[in-house]
UniProtKB/TrEMBL annotation, chain A:
Residues 43-53 have a biased composition (Low complexity). It comes from Amphiprion ocellaris (Clown anemonefish). One of its GO terms (biological process) is mitochondrial electron transport, NADH to ubiquinone. The keyword Glycosyltransferase does not apply. It is a single-pass membrane protein. Keywords: Electron transport, Membrane, Mitochondrion, Mitochondrion inner membrane, Respiratory chain, Transit peptide, Transmembrane, Transmembrane helix, Transport. PANTHER family: NADH DEHYDROGENASE [UBIQUINONE] 1 BETA SUBCOMPLEX SUBUNIT 8, MITOCHONDRIAL, NADH-UBIQUINONE OXIDOREDUCTASE ASHI SUBUNIT. Residues 73-84 have a biased composition (Basic and acidic residues). It is found in: Mitochondrion inner membrane. This is NADH dehydrogenase [ubiquinone] 1 beta subcomplex subunit 8, mitochondrial. Complex I is composed of 45 different subunits. Belongs to the complex I NDUFB8 subunit family.
TrEMBL record, chain B:
Keywords: Electron transport, Membrane, Mitochondrion, Mitochondrion inner membrane, Respiratory chain, Transmembrane, Transmembrane helix, Transport. The lineage of its organism: Eukaryota, Metazoa, Chordata, Craniata, Vertebrata. This is NADH dehydrogenase [ubiquinone] 1 beta subcomplex subunit 4. PANTHER family: NADH DEHYDROGENASE [UBIQUINONE] 1 BETA SUBCOMPLEX SUBUNIT 4, NADH-UBIQUINONE OXIDOREDUCTASE B15 SUBUNIT. The chain crosses the membrane at residues 84-103. Accessory subunit of the mitochondrial membrane respiratory chain NADH dehydrogenase (Complex I), that is believed not to be involved in catalysis. Complex I functions in the transfer of electrons from NADH to the respiratory chain. The immediate electron acceptor for the enzyme is believed to be ubiquinone. It comes from Amphiprion percula. One of its GO terms (cellular component) is mitochondrial inner membrane. Residues 1-21 are annotated as: Disordered. It comes from the Eukaryota. It is found in: Mitochondrion inner membrane. The keyword Phosphoprotein does not apply. Belongs to the complex I NDUFB4 subunit family.
Length: 202, 127
């Protein structure tokens, strides 16, 4: 039967690839109808088996090698998260790089995610997708960015403070009415002579 | 440019990265070749499944299955250490009591002001 490890050097076998092939073959020559073949024992060949899912922290070098093979990584590259009870198990600790940084011109299997099929996924992959957190290099250095941002904010705050202390606007005064402050309209006696109201100063 | 310091949590531009210039020893090249071999094997498996004319179903990605399983099942690997219990207390216990205390005192103070008639009822929308 054609093997997936038919290359001269030692290569990690993708267990699910082998399992998928066996399951597909069992299904094609399976006894009975499709549904019963699905429900019979051939389900164990899918990736729901124990040895292809994440497990506990690897303690011995053999466990580390097996875990590296499971995750499709080199044994030297495989580095599990430190075993401090935070729930990682044997999941590999990949570099904290966002998908923004990956080559946009390479032919990825999933171009929008910039990821190949079967590649180990970062624990915080859903944070590092191209719509979200970006760790790519910044155009200017951190100190320049800090100076520019806080300089601008500080300057604006200072100017607003100065504007509060020394306000500057068109001069205003209460509205002045003609005809002796509208003496007749306000119900003044038409016979009586109103006193003169002077709303100006010369 | 010699004093370029990258922002925290961001990376260095490729042209300023010393790895580009210094990683040329045979061991590193062999390592890169091994990684390329793994990548090529996975590509081959994916392309075989993708171009199979008899395939009816979706191509299942075991790396994705593992990731989802790892993210949803951290409980067997949980150990109550100082850090984890501190985090649990900070996020689970402290907000409960702190928010209760804050809201209760603020509302009691407002009630006192209403009863005394000193509450200033402004027209602004924010208070």
């Amino acid at each position: 039967m054609r093997n997936t490890t038919s290359v001269r050097q030692q290569q990690p076998v993708n267990m699910a690839g082998v399992g998928f092939r066996r399951w597909a073959q069992a299904l094609s020559k399976g006894k009975g109808s499709g549904i019963s073949a699905l429900l019979s024992g051939s389900r164990a060949a899918s990736s729901a088996s124990k040895d292809s899912l994440p497990g506990p922290y690897p303690k011995t070098p053999e466990e580390r090698a097996a875990a590296a093979k499971k995750y499709n990584m080199r044994v030297e590259d495989y580095e599990p998260h430190p075993d401090n009870g935070e729930g990682y198990g044997d999941y590999p600790k990949l570099p904290d790089r966002s998908q923004h940084e990956r080559d946009p011109w390479y032919q990825w299997d999933h171009p929008d995610l910039r990821r190949n099929w079967g590649e180990p996924i970062h624990w915080h992959f859903d944070m590092y997708i191209r719509n979200r957190v970006d760790t790519s290099p910044s155009p200017v250095s951190w100190s320049t960015m800090c100076k520019q941002l806080f300089g601008f904010i500080g300057f604006m705050l200072f100017m607003f403070y100065v504007g509060e202390k020394c306000p500057s606007y068109q001069p205003v005064a209460p509205k002045q009415y003609p005809f002796n402050n509208l003496y007749l309209e306000r119900g003044g006696d038409p016979e009586k002579e109103p006193e003169d109201v002077k709303n100006y100063e010369i | 440019m010699a004093d370029y310091r990258e922002a925290p949590l961001a990376t260095r531009p490729k042209t300023l990265d010393p790895n580009e210039y210094f990683n040329l020893s045979p061991e590193q090249r062999r390592a890169e070749e091994a990684r390329g071999a793994i990548r090529a094997n996975l590509k081959r498996q994916y392309q075989t499944q993708l171009n199979n004319p008899h395939r009816q179903e979706l191509i299942e990605d075991p790396a994705l299955t593992r990731w989802v399983y790892a993210r949803t099942n951290p409980y067997p690997h949980f150990k109550p250490t100082f850090k984890t219990s501190l985090l649990g207390a900070m996020f689970g216990v402290v907000p409960l009591f702190a928010l209760y205390y804050i809201f209760k005192t603020d509302r009691d103070r407002k009630e006192e002001q209403i009863k005394a008639g000193t509450l200033e009822r402004k027209f602004s929308l924010s208070s």
